[in-house]
Amino acid sequence: MSKLIYLDNAATTQVYPEVVDAMKPFFTEYYGNPSAVYSFASEANKAVTGSREIIAKALGAKTEEIYFTGGGSESDNWALKATADAYGDKGKHIITTKIEHHAILHTAEYLEKKGFEVTYLDVDEDGVVRLDELKAAIRPDTILISVMTANNEIGTIQPIAEIGKIAKENGVLFHTDAVQAFGHIPINVDEMNIDMLSASGHKVNGPKGIGIMYIRKGIKINSFIHGGSQERSRRAGTHNVPGIVGYGKAIELATTNMEDRIKYETELRDYLIERVLKEIPHVRLNGHRTDRLPNNANFCFRFIEGESLLILLDQKGICGSSGSACTSGALDPSHVLLAIGLPHEIAHGSLRLTLSEKTTKEEIDYTVDELKKNIERLRKMSPLYEDFIKQAV
Ligand SMILES: *Cc1c(COP(=O)(O)O)cnc(C)c1O
Question: pLDDT tens digits, residue range 164-177?
């Protein structure tokens, strides 16, 4: 098989052809600056408004509560830094979790250097935040709770409505990084008491470099990017019109067939999980068995390195991802896998496979067959595995 089998949809997704078609006219034809007064620009302006309406509707938000940004990382930075800036007089305590994306974690660490105190909540072995621990962490000076809707590595979905309720009852603002969730599972900002939400185009078959922040009306946070008066003076910079149009189209497509897609992906994901757990020894599934993103499977295989497995899979045209990222010579296991209680040596053998609605059963079968072969191959080379086998007999 020389075909590409793309199973890294949590890293980024294909931009759908319908999305590209919707974007095209805004490069060459309607290239006017939407802030201009002449009528030539009105087409671009209308398109930006149209996208904002689609995205607001999909979240159950008001149109004027949606702000376009340069992506998920920017929105996460904005939410934390601007809340700290605007509400710092009220208190200097922020609550988040140990399993957030680095866009949240590194921003929180930055704020710690600026005099804020951050509580990083533990999660249980499935990666779920414990609500009693959240409640116990809230103090009179807590200004913000930031908990991701769904985890990008292990796929676990958090009890967002319950967290929103706790935040509201305690008069604390609630932000959620919904980059992996928006467009993939239903979200409603009112029902879930969400005050701020980050999302990104390229995780949902839209273009890269475009995102949104939802900010509930009445929340007084300022601009993060200073300059012109775009986005109701809250996010300066000439609108990325093709990006905004593409993101709107992607969300329209995602919400129109969400039910069918969830069903298809969930069935295929469960088929993958069942085959792997049944046919490959010394494996564990990471993340919650059912409260997980429809397209996410994450495993740890003992006695192997995730990185080595990825290289072998790549030779077979399979794109996956491993939690362990090789940084500056030191191999650090994923902070998420450590937070769910895995020892380093197990966390190193992780593999994340994230499907799409275009992934086929044949691709999954081929992938599992290759996994079996290559894991066996790697284990044969592992001294740890050799010792283990010797001890077993
Ligand atoms: C990808 C991702 C981000 C960053 O989004 P970008 O648009 O790539 O900046 C933030 N949070 C989560 C959970 C993500 O998966």
Answer: 999 999 999 999 99
For residue 150, the tally of other CB atoms under 10 A from its CB is: 28
d(CA 201, CA 205): 7
Distance from the alpha carbon of residue 199 to the mean position of ligand 1, in angstroms: 8
| pLDDT band with cut points at 50, 70 and 90 for residue 393 | confident
- In the CATH scheme, what architecture does the domain 5-13+258-392 have? Alpha-Beta Complex (3.90)
Minimum CA distance residue for ligand 1 atom 10: 72
Closest atom of ligand 1 to CA, residue 73: 9
Distance between CA atoms of residues 14 and 6, nearest Å = 9
Domain boundaries, the chain: 5-13+258-392, 17-256
**Both structure tokens of 353:** 């496979």
Whether the predicted pLDDT of 329 surpasses 90: no
Q: What is the DSSP string of 84-100?
A: HHHHTTT--EEEEETTS
Residue that is written with structure tokens 């809707």 in the block? 149
pTM: 0.97
Q: pLDDT, tens digit, for every residue of 286-320?
A: 999 999 999 999 999 999 999 999 999 999 999 99
* pLDDT at site 153: 97
Q: Which atom of ligand 1 is nearest to the CA of 150?
A: 13
Instruction: Report whether residue 179 contacts ligand 1, using a CB cutoff of 6 Å.
Output: yes
Ligand 1 centroid to Cα of residue 176, in Å, is: 12
166: which residues sit within 8 A by CB, 6+ positions away?
Answer: 131, 134, 135, 138, 145
> How many residues can be counted in the chain?
393
CA distance 182 to 177: 9
Q: What CATH number matches the domain at 17-256, 3.30.2130.10, 3.40.50.360, 3.40.50.620, 3.40.640.10?
A: 3.40.640.10
Task: Give me the amino acid identity at 175.
Answer: H
Q: What is the distance of C-alpha 360 from the center of its chain?
A: 23
| Position 332 confidence tier, pLDDT thresholds 50, 70, 90 | confident
| Cα angle value 289/291/294 (rounded, 5°) | 90
Ligand 1 lined by 183 (C-beta under 6 Å): no
Q: Give, in order, the Cα–Cα distances in Å from 378 to each of 272, 306, 307, 383.
A: 21, 10, 11, 10
Q: Which helix (H) or strand (E) holds 256?
A: helix 241-256
Query: Active-site residue 326, yes or no?
Result: yes
Nearest residue CA, atom 6 of ligand 1?
72
